[in-house]
Design brief:
By secondary structure, the protein is an alpha/beta fold. It has 7 helices and 9 strands; from the N terminus they run βαβββαββαβαβααβα. It has a 5-stranded parallel β-sheet, sandwiched between helices. A 4-stranded mixed β-sheet has the order 4-3-6-5.
């Protein structure tokens, strides 16, 4: 077992189910920690502050940027999202594994800072299925859904930059694949002391 924890980066277009996959694999692996991002967007009806995201004002987010408290941050659909540098460093330095659900831009920044990280890209079965899932969520306006669909095409072009690509067609099967990747990586020679 390595002294430093492993960093798992999970990315994919909006609507691919990556958040649900991360939450469920965390339940399967109690020793796996899930990073919680900061955001300036309003909470959705089913979201809980401190569990799904840390919901903060734009001013508070700008202060975090100015104080170099975020290892990465980006503006996505008019809202800011970012990852705490302190949380990542503390978790990994304590030998604990961390799963980060992040967009492609943030993933690229993390991969540069943590070259030993393991990156996993979640794809939808098809573009029409992705659009169907986004509409079914009923959380965004038609304009935002169109922007998400357009951006998803750009994001899917990034998939080959990742260590693993998984297609979320049948959720339970995809969850098992993600679980297997995490277990296998724990036993790879490059992660051993």
């Amino acid at each position: 077992m390595s002294e430093e924890g492993l960093l798992y980066i999970v990315s994919g277009p909006s609507g691919t189910g990556k958040t649900s996959l991360c939450e469920e694999v965390k339940k399967m692996m109690p020793g796996l920690n899930l990073s919680i991002s900061y955001t300036t967007r309003p909470a959705r009806d089913n979201e809980i502050d401190g569990q799904d995201y840390f919901f903060v004002s734009r001013e508070a987010f700008r202060t975090m940027i100015n104080n170099a408290e975020l290892i990465e941050w980006a503006e996505v659909y008019g809202h800011f999202y970012g990852t705490s540098l302190k949380v990542i460093e503390k978790t990994l330095n304590n030998g604990l594994d961390l799963l980060v659900n992040i967009d492609c831009q943030g993933a690229e920044q993390l991969k540069k800072k943590y070259p030993r990280s393991i990156s996993i890209f979640v794809l939808p079965p098809s573009s029409p299925e992705l659009e169907k899932r986004l509409r079914k969520r009923n959380t965004d306006s038609p304009e935002i859904i169109e922007r998400r669909v357009k951006k998803s095409r750009e994001e899917m072009a990034q998939a080959k930059k990742y260590d693993y690509i998984i297609i979320n067609e049948i959720f339970d099967e995809t969850l098992q694949v993600l679980h297997s990747i995490i277990i296998a990586e724990k036993h790879r020679g490059r992660h051993q002391p």
